[in-house]
Amino acid sequence: MMIAEKPINFLLVDDLEENLLALEALLQHEGLVCLKARSGEEALELLLAHDIALALLDVQMPGMDGFELAEFMRGNARARHTPIIFVTAGAADSQRRFRGYEAGAVDFIQKPVEADILRSKAKVFFELHRQRQQIERQRDELEVAAQALKRADRHKDSFLAVLAHELRNPVAALSGGLHLLGKDVPPERAKDIRSRMDRMLTHLSHLVDDLLDVSRVSQGKISLKKQRIALSETLQSAIDASQHNLDAGNHRFIVDIPSEAIWLDADQTRVAQIVSNLLNNAAKYTPSGGVLTLSARASDGFAEIRVADTGVGIAPEMQPWIFEIFAQVEDHLAKAQGGLGIGLALVKQLVALHDGTIQVESAGKDMGSTFSVRIPIAVETPTNCD
What we know:
48% of the residues lie in helices and 19% in strands. β11 and β12 form a beta hairpin. The radius of gyration is 34 Å and the shape is elongated. The two termini are 54 Å apart.
């Protein structure tokens, strides 16, 4: 993202208004902001409020003169490094020059001012200030990138730990089942062992499928098989796929789907996968006996699908990151009942492939969550009339 450059401020200090106007006319340029002061006191107020690229100070002013103002500037943290050019009508003898440079001046200019010389010198300091601004922006961008890398590294470490746990359990169960089947076990016992091994294989298959899907989407290797589909049928497929998790949590499940048909140009399998993942996620993070709601409606050319729950909720500070890859809420890991924490990341990617959007709303801990998916409705195909 490109960040707009800030305007560059320069300060003119002179007790005569006509001198200020003349200097402003000489230096004014697009991207520059001229700040004017008629006294040292006014100048100090401006210096405290603004970042100044260059200060042109009249030496001879009533009250606080230019030298005194420069000394005050050197004692102020914000103005300490502001370049100063003294503008003087008097003779700049060696003693005056020494005092000026000691106060922090970078140059002296005699009145009447030669316009080209002043512009040339001022341009150097404006360009240096612009380069410093650019360096500061790059520093800030690097800091943001570094923080993002640290967060991604933490997520990766957490993911690897979860992956090891998720793979170890079914692999251990399969290994134990094979060992038992190698012994002389009763037929009923063997049937039960095979049934559990089958469930473990199904679980492993789902883990691998999720990993492959995320990898394919990230690399742009998933191509949607779009066709005209009825949203109600797709939602029913998602419900069927998630029914086991819905039943296991003893949740009250509410479905609110309009009776009128809503048509999409979409990949039915992938849309069902989006909704099924959201339903499974809601079931995992909702305590037993909670309420889950699946609703849909047509709105402004989009099909809006909402999955709401009365579960553990999402803290406000976590909501911007909830769709990042491997970004599981740490407090929720114990309640996740298995999974790699990539379901919501996959959902977001699949929604984006359908030119849609997804948002999450949650009032906070134990306040439930609502995920809203918007996918464009199919454009009506005109019929031919004889």
